[in-house]
UniProtKB/TrEMBL annotation:
PANTHER family for this protein: SLL0781 PROTEIN
Protein name: Response regulator receiver domain protein
One Pfam family here: DUF1348
């Protein structure tokens, strides 16, 4: 098995690195790349959906990014312990009708000794916004 640094136990600096790596991967919108950060049997709760394993994660992310167009995410470290990290996040996206959304919430992560996430629990809220209310302006 390959390690995915930084590894637990986390310090503030390595927890911040882990959060930034997750933000970068999710902003790639590449389901296969994102899934490599999780254990083979990783358990997720995303809103009301329960997902187990990398193939299910990839399928979920494909569906997600087919719906959530021009997705852009920011994550912020909230707290950490030896093998757990809590983050707050927000992201913007639009649907096929060009309605923009701000989605925000919290995630709780638990890692194995190789630095792979074995559990991810996400609580997410969605708020419709106008184009003028967008906060994230990245080049496409």
């Amino acid at each position: 098995m390959n390690d995915r640094p930084p590894l637990p136990p986390f310090t503030e600096a390595t927890a911040r690195q882990k959060v930034q790596a997750a933000e970068d991967a999710w902003n790639s919108r590449d389901p296969e790349r994102v899934a490599l950060a999780y254990t083979e049997g990783s358990e997720w709760r995303n809103r009301s959906e329960f997902i187990t394993g990398r193939p299910a994660i990839v399928a979920f992310l494909r569906r997600k990014w087919a719906k959530e167009l021009d997705y852009r995410l920011r994550k912020e470290l909230w707290a950490f312990t030896d093998d757990r990290i809590a983050v707050r996040f927000e992201y913007e996206w639009h649907d096929v009708s060009s309605q923009w959304w701000l989605s925000y919430g919290n995630e709780n992560w638990e890692f194995d000794e190789h630095g792979l996430m074995r559990r991810r629990y996400a609580s997410i809220n969605d708020v419709p916004i106008t184009e003028a209310e967008r906060r994230f302006r990245w080049e496409r």
